[in-house]
Write a structure and sequence with these properties.
By secondary structure, the protein is of the alpha+beta class. The protein has helices at residues 10-20, 71-79, 92-97, 108-112, 175-178; strands spanning 24-25, 27-32, 38-43, 46-51, 54-58, 81-86, 116-117, 126-127, 132-143, 152-163, 168-169, 172-173, 181-183, 189-191. The longest helix is centred in the N-terminal third of the chain and has 11 residues, at 10-20. The termini are far apart.
Length: 203
């Protein structure tokens, strides 16, 4: 089948992309409003951007009515701080609960049952149950598109990390102990599954 994205509507493009670009890691992003209201939301348009400086990036999609910003975007614009918590098998269902389109000001920590703990440097809380947490300062925010289905790119500089002692050795994370989950299409998620090793060719 040959497909032109210019002949598809937004939902058709969306379904093709999220079903093809898989698996996608999940950033469970905690932020806080200027008034001190905590927010917790998962994003699967998420990846590493650089390691010098240490940058992570996620892309909140504009899909709410009238294209208003998500609470996460508003909070980060106001405070320039957030925490990215890694989602594992143990907290997958609770992270999914945080994806609900709740009213502004809703506390997803309370709704999901996840535990808010103070961060070391930034104001937003960390998720206690997540074994890896990245405290971030806003590095840059770019508008990718203001149209429906567009997004904002939020680059966060990692200024502090919290890693469970059982997961790390020589600055390496044991992926089998971490047990991360990833997003597929629709309601489908995945676990790490079988891990294979492929050495890079020596040229």
């Amino acid at each position: 089948m040959e497909i032109s994205p210019f002949q598809l509507d937004n939902m058709e493009r969306y379904k093709l992309l999220i079903g093809s670009v898989v698996p996608r890691p999940i950033a469970l992003v905690s932020s806080i409003s200027a008034q001190g209201e905590p927010n917790l939301a998962p994003f699967s348009f998420f990846t590493v951007a650089a390691y010098n400086p240490m940058l992570l990036v996620f892309f909140p999609v504009r899909y709410k009515k009238k294209l208003e910003f998500k609470d996460t975007v508003i909070n980060i614009r106001e405070t320039a701080e957030f925490v990215i918590n890694v989602v594992t098998e143990d907290i997958a269902e609770q992270a999914n609960t945080c994806s609900g389109l709740y009213e502004k000001g809703a506390n997803e920590f309370v709704i999901s049952g996840l535990t808010a703990v103070k961060s070391r440097i930034v104001k937003p809380f960390r998720v206690k149950e997540s074994p890896i947490q990245f405290e971030c300062k806003l590095h840059k925010m770019l508008t990718i598109s203001e149209e429906s289905g567009g997004s904002d790119a939020i680059f966060g500089e990692v200024i502090h990390m919290h890693v469970d002692d059982s997961l790390i050795g020589d600055h390496k994370i044991d992926i089998r102990k971490l047990k991360p989950v990833a997003k597929l299409a629709g309601p489908e998620w995945s676990t790490i599954g079988e891990v294979i090793n492929l050495d890079r060719p020596k040229v």
